[in-house]
Amino acid sequence: MEAGIGIFIICCMSILSPFYGVDKEGQLHGCAPSPNCVSSGSWEYNYIHHIEPITYNYDSSTAFKRMHTYFENSENIHIDEVISDQYIRVTYFTKVFRFPDRVELFFPKDQNHIEVRSHSWIGLWDVFANRLRIARFRNIIDSENPPTSETLF
After folding, report:
1. How far, in Å, CA of 135 to CA of 97, rounded?
2. Structure confidence at residue 13 (pLDDT)
3. What is the dihedral of CA 55, 135, 117, 13, to 10 degrees?
4. HSE on the CB side for 7, CA within 13 Å?
5. Which residues contact 77 (CB under 8 A, 6 or more apart)?
6. In sequence order, which residues have a C-beta less than 8 Å from that of residue 13 and are 6 or more positions away?
7. Residue 63 above 90 pLDDT?
8. Maximum Cα–Cα distance for the chain, whole Å?
């Protein structure tokens, strides 16, 4: 019985995860203990949750526009909050079961990288979906002609 309660609590940790947004130090919040989240704000030695920020070689407003345009033109994505040239928070919905995943992008001023956080709201493990999502974002930022939503898996 206690094991069942423990598993239920761990599965719900994503809903009870740290607040979204940027903290007082100018970093995205880290991840809850469950392995269904990746964040560039997680500790570097935390191999379950840590992912490197997305880097780019041009101005931050261009990077912001690329990502915002991608989110606007993609299906199954709802833009929850936008702070111009600084922060984007979206909710992804999986195509089959419509599970929600929250994604946050923070564009620190005078730095050529994007802080990222992606986590699944439901379930204990995300089958690497969050890491693959961030890899897609890297492709959008790195390419000279950003792909449209139809060309990405």
Report:
1. 22
2. 46
3. -160
4. 6
5. 71, 90, 91, 92, 93
6. 32, 33, 34
7. yes
8. 55
